[in-house]
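Following up on my earlier thread - several people asked me to post the actual chain instead of describing it. Fair enough. Here it is, all 287 residues.
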Amino acid sequence: MTRPLVAHTRAELREALSKVRARGGLVALVPTMGALHDGHAALMAAARAAVQEADVVVVSIFVNPMQFGPGEDLTRYPRTLDADLDVCAAHGVQVVFCPTVTEVYPGGDPVVTVDPGPDSRSWEGRVRPGHFRGVATVVAKLFGLVRPDLAFFGEKDYEQLVLVRRMVADLCMGIEIVGVPTVREPDGLALSSRNRFLEPDQRLLAQSLSRALSAGVRAGPHGPEAVLAAAREVLEAEPGISLDYLALSDPDLIGTPESGPARVLVAARVGSTRLIDNMALTLGGVS
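Reply from S.P.:
Thanks for posting it. Predicted structure:
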């Protein structure tokens, strides 16, 4: 198992990708904040399957301070680079871009940032003001540094996936954004780097998020109100869950349809750990 080349600087990244670009090869990017798990591995596998052997898969590992708000877990966020490189090697990643904060933001906090639109238009944005400004800005910077042809994002962070797709379309970036389905533990819990902070009893509580979403999915044929009521009933039965939001929208997160494809989303705190999840469903069908 060959470990990937690790680039810590912009210059090292350019050099690592220069031969691929010279021969017209494709570059596939998987942006991450590290602490890699099977969910990230699924992104790498999807990227590797989407390109040829002569093309290159790049994983970026960067804990972006811009997307953490006051009191959030920036310093607590796990850093596991050695283990992360093993995961990358096992899934055919040739280059890992692991820059410092100074390398990504050489002048300190950037003056020019990417405005994702009003926070009031998104659930995560309302709960975490400025979060998506930080996400959009760092993703745009990574796109500029790596210049990928394709980029892979997990559906677990569904609002982020929709935002990145919209940014790429609105700013004419010419990058194919590929969404990869959420990977779950056998108990239904969506894989997350933050799951490691859960105590055993908290982990049992956290399973109620996926159970609530599944209940909402099953209620889909009966319409939007039934979806939210079924999901809320599961969550309200668990007093240890502190709910940030439970929401239902169309797949583009523009509005709530009465029928057809939709997405149900949830965010909650279990102890001091904040978790998010979502599932696709179909509304309508029962008269």
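The chain has a mean pLDDT of 95. That should answer part of your original question.
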